[in-house]
Design goal:
10-stranded antiparallel beta sheet; 2% helix; Fimbrillin family protein; Mfa-like_1; Mfa-like_1_N; signal
């Protein structure tokens, strides 16, 4: 498993094309504005319901992103430019944003840039964002609203072509300034396979649920750190399949707050329309221990549903890459 501190899932650019007094230089009418664009690093696998490309290569259309921009000043020095906190930008799904135009300080000083999504009103950079995942994530909008992101400008480390480091504060420049977003929570991906006594027709009208997870956390906006999971353990609806569903695969995914799920806890439930609930209980792997859900990780489960219960194969991987973990197996029974 990779130990990279964060996954580089987005490159957002603050394109600053310059202007010049040199009459021989091509002009582009740049007035010092900060031009925001964005993109998400391609994920090798994205499984959620029948949709397989949700928020994989770009921040999803109409997702509101909050930006904090401030002038870099020395201790005791007063900034010459004050920016509206928590600027509201709307993603267009193709890497662009719509929102208020902002400019570099006329003083020529550097700026610090931080961003997060989904945006919430009335937040300040020195405060915390109390966040709760949705109890029903079977609809795309509610899944996106549960996918907590945080980003800051990043740059390649000197001498490296793969490793990045924070780039704040950012100097006034014509060049693009990459702002990289990371997933802060954990992702559960599930694929259903029909086993003995069942066919895929039995999945029509079924409901898939992730069970017994704490839904809350708190994000420190200036650092991207999140608190331990909080709240009362609850269930998350992953998918409710139509009675006339004919997908190539019955799949689903849900976002959960990183936490520890105790051994023998009911974790995944499949409710069949024809009657009966099938459960998967933790453990996590051959060690038969608790399940540790970590920030930025995908936990992928392939479930073979049988009338006698579920057989589960799972993989743990970094969010930006799928299949790097060691497969583990488990069983479940009808209760």
């Amino acid at each position: 498993m990779r130990t990279k501190a964060f996954m580089m899932m987005a490159a957002a650019a603050l394109a600053m094309a310059g202007c010049s007094n040199d009459e021989n230089e091509v002009m582009d009418n740049w007035n010092g504005e900060i031009r925001l664009t964005s993109g998400l690093e391609v994920q090798q696998t994205e499984t959620r319901g029948i949709t397989t490309d949700l928020q994989t290569t770009q921040i999803a259309q109409d997702n509101h992103v909050g930006f904090f921009i401030n002038e870099e000043v020395a201790s005791g020095e007063t900034a010459t430019t004050t920016y509206t906190p928590n600027l509201d930008y709307t993603a267009d799904g193709n890497g662009g944003f719509s929102g208020t135009t902002v400019y570099f300080p006329q003083s020529g000083k550097d700026v610090n840039i931080y961003a997060y999504a989904p945006r919430k009103t009335d937040l300040t950079l020195d405060g915390n964002y109390s966040f709760t995942v949705k109890a029903d994530q079977s609809k795309d909008a509610d899944y996106i609203a549960s996918d907590l992101l945080w980003g800051q400008p990043m740059k390649l480390k000197t001498g490296s072509t793969t490793d990045y480091e924070p780039a704040n504060p950012v100097a006034r420049t014509k060049e693009n300034v990459p702002v990289s977003f990371k997933h802060l929570l954990s992702k559960i991906e599930i694929e259903l396979v029909a086993g003995d006594g069942l066919t895929t027709d039995d999945f029509k009208g079924a409901t898939l649920t992730v069970m017994n997870t704490l839904p809350g956390t708190s994000l420190t906006l200036s650092s991207g750190a999140i608190s331990s999971a909080s709240g009362t353990a609850a269930d998350i609806t992953v998918a409710t399949y139509p009675t006339d569903a004919t997908p190539a695969a019955f799949t689903g995914s849900a976002i959960v707050v990183p936490q520890t799920i105790a051994k023998d806890t009911k974790f995944i439930k499949l409710n069949l329309k024809k009657g009966g609930d099938l459960y998967y209980r933790v453990p996590n792997g051959t060690t038969d221990t608790a399940l540790e859900l970590a920030s930025g990780k995908i936990y992928k489960y392939k479930i073979t549903a049988k009338l006698t219960g579920l057989t589960v194969t799972s993989t743990i991987a970094n969010w930006e890459t799928i299949g790097n973990g060691n497969p583990i197996t488990g069983d479940a029974v009808m209760e």
